[in-house]
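Aim 2 progress update. The chain analyzed this quarter is reproduced below.
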Amino acid sequence: MKRSLPCLIFTLEIVALLFASCATKAPPPAQASAPPPQAAPAQPANPTPAKVAKQRTVERKVPVLVKESSFYPDGLADEYIVYKLDDAKKNVIEKDVYDASRPDPIQRVVSDFKDGRLASESVFESDGSLRSRRDLAYDTSGLPAQETIFDAKGKPQSSSAYSYDASGRKAEWKALDASGSVKAVSDYAYGSSGLVGVEMKDSGGKPAGRIELEYADGKLAKRSYFGADGSLQKFESYAYSDGLLATVEYRGADGSLVSKTSYSYGPSGELVKAAESGPSGAPGEYTTYEYAVRVDDSVETYYE
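Predicted structure tokens:
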């Protein structure tokens, strides 16, 4: 049976509405999901291992003076000194002085040590007889506090006493006679670079002279000597090369050159020659120095 037109139109409208509803309906929201896992940082193919502290023994060669020779300007030998060392090559146990014309020493100085410190020095004549002895005493910090000179019979002849500031620097030196009476006093003053002045006084405390020291770049540049009246007596000028003392000029109060000493060094910075020259530059006496080598071991830390 044929449908009526109104019924057909109504049916078409319903279909159209249903179609439109299906066409415009949004899809259901997606379910929340966990973010994808982050990839681990890429590791180097061969990671560098951490360095480990290790220790090793290092040998250091130290020059030790064993001979000092003096010569006249023409090269003729004057005298020489031989220094005898202990087995460790750290202390001089004997100093023998020779006249170049004699095979035997003209003087011997024998040193005795106690607790690693110099305790006494005995001076012997060429015939082996004792001339004098010097004894040293130390304070609780290990600094020299007193030294006493004795004659061959052991009788005190003179002595010296030292005192120090809080930094362990020498602050005062007193010279005393055999009875212990003060004969002279020196007071020491310091600046940022080191010792800057020495004031000398007589037994009564009156000025006996002074020494002033000047520095450049942390090194001694000038040393001036003044009399009791404060007048300049003489001065010394110091010059350096590669951090080592190169020359010392000795000049009078008027600045005139009296003499000059030039210094030469070995590969380890050890002094090998000190040569004097006169005001005109003419060569004077010179001294050469010879060394033995002491090997010191130390432990250092390194990383690898």
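The chain is about 5% helix and 60% strand. The chain has one domain: 54-303. These observations will guide the mutagenesis experiments scheduled for the next reporting period.
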